[in-house]
């Protein structure tokens, strides 16, 4: 009886470890770069792709790119916020694992 409990506990802890590891590796993707900027590895600069904007920003950090949009292109910044809200709502779905998954230890 105790053996099955410990196997069950081991599976739960292993599953939690892999979920944490994958979250740490993958990270969250911010759509600001792919929608509004083009990054050049050689010069380490991000070019603003909005028509009429001559700006080049150093690096590709999402917060700097968002700040540029917020100050210079507020309409496009609002579009970005809507896009981010939509993607966050999709990611907030909970994954439920059936208890039957854990009961299959005996097989």
UniProtKB/TrEMBL annotation:
Keyword set, alphabetical order: Signal
Record keyword Signal present: yes
Keyword check for Signal: yes
Signal peptide (residue range): 1-24
Protein name per UniProt: BED-type domain-containing protein
């Amino acid at each position: 009886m105790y053996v099955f409990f410990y196997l069950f506990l081991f599976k739960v802890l292993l599953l939690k470890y892999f979920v944490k590891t994958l979250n740490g590796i993958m990270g969250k993707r911010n759509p600001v770069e792919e929608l509004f900027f083009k990054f050049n590895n050689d010069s380490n600069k991000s070019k603003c792709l909005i028509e009429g904007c001559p700006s080049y920003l150093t690096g590709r950090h999402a917060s700097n790119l968002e700040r540029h949009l917020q100050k210079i292109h507020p309409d496009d910044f609002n579009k970005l916020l809507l896009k981010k809200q939509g993607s966050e709502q999709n990611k907030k779905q909970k994954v439920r694992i059936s208890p039957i998954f854990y009961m299959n230890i005996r097989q």
